[in-house]
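Quick start: what a row looks like.
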Amino acid sequence: MIENVILVDKNDSEIGVEEKHSAHKAGKLHRAISVFLFNSKGETLLQKRESGKYHSGGLWTNTCCGHQRPGDDTVSTAKRKLKEEMGIECELKEIFSFIYFVKFDNGMHEHEFDHVLFGKFDGEPKPDPSEAEGWRWVGIDALEKEIEAHPEQFTYWLKECLPQLKNHPD
């Protein structure tokens, strides 16, 4: 199945649609979502990306992430991806957004206008093994120390989000 992403300008205004891998290869700015779930202890749920992913495989990242499809809104996209990747259904609220750009060794790029959503969840995820090969709960302060000690084990966008996570208590 061909998956398209929504191309946007720096103000998040839609300017077109392109096939996902083509947009990543060309480094075109497109709309994305990142979900962070928090439990009643204030810990966030991380997933370990499946090792065979086209970029950032085997790295720890936020609860789930993905791309908005043409015609979908941000919250419904985030709920769909959360269910697909982690087997979780819960309410989500958009908290902030940011733009980032990174080039990977395999010639792919992430150039995303990323909408960040938070939710509350105290259950046990049931991840799709083709999306996530592991998961764990971690406090934000402990996560910050882990990233400082071993930045190579975490996705670029998680490291970019961390300062804003600390400024937006769940």
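That is the whole record. The first strand starts at residue 4 and ends at 8. The beta strands are 4-8, 14-19, 30-38, 44-49, 60-61, 64-67, 92-103, 109-120, 132-138.
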